[in-house]
Design brief:
alpha/beta, 17% strand, Rossmann fold, five-stranded parallel beta sheet, single chain
Length: 167
């Protein structure tokens, strides 16, 4: 599976799509982890139409593999909290071992107070409740990445394997 392939087979005209929908325009690479196929595809399409490059994964294990290959370009982890196998919180912790400044947005159908009680909103971690609109998604991603740019101009990224070996 090519993780850099477009989320849809049809290439969207990004500028006209963004202009017609009012989506917040952005740039950068996002690793998106969602086990529900339809939501994963639609969310990828929205993000790509807003100008982002999206690497997608269905599970935490797949996300770790994708991240290991593309860690130097991934600026944001957008992940569901509940995933098969390892949950989104543990995935974020693992990826932060390699890239401590990685920005993270958790998405969940659970109420925000439940999510925050589980310790999901640490520094550089944000929350977006499901269901979300295309506008709220792109606005949140842009806000998080702009904060990332302001606080993270020189990120050192370690090898995932070496970080794992030292643990």
């Amino acid at each position: 599976m090519n993780h850099l392939q477009s989320c849809t087979e049809t290439i969207l005209e990004s500028d006209s799509m963004v202009g017609n929908t009012g989506l917040t325009r952005g740039r950068g690479t996002i690793l998106f982890v969602e086990d529900e196929n339809f939501l994963r595809e639609v969310t990828c399409e929205i993000l790509e139409s807003a100008g982002y490059r999206v690497l997608k994964a269905r599970t935490a294990a797949e996300a770790i593999s994708v991240f290991d290959e593309y860690k130097t370009i991934v600026r944001l982890l957008l992940t569901d909290v509940v995933l098969p196998g390892q949950n989104g919180r543990d995935l974020a912790t693992d990826l932060r071992i390699v890239s401590p400044k990685l920005k993270i947005i958790f998405i969940s159908g659970y109420p925000e107070n439940v999510v925050t009680r589980q310790g999901l909103q640490e520094d550089g971690m944000f929350y977006l409740p499901k269901p979300f609109s295309a506008q709220s998604l792109t606005r949140k991603v842009r806000q998080v990445l702009e904060r990332h740019e302001a606080t993270n101009t020189n990120v050192q990224v370690a090898s995932y394997d070496s970080a794992e070996d030292s643990a």
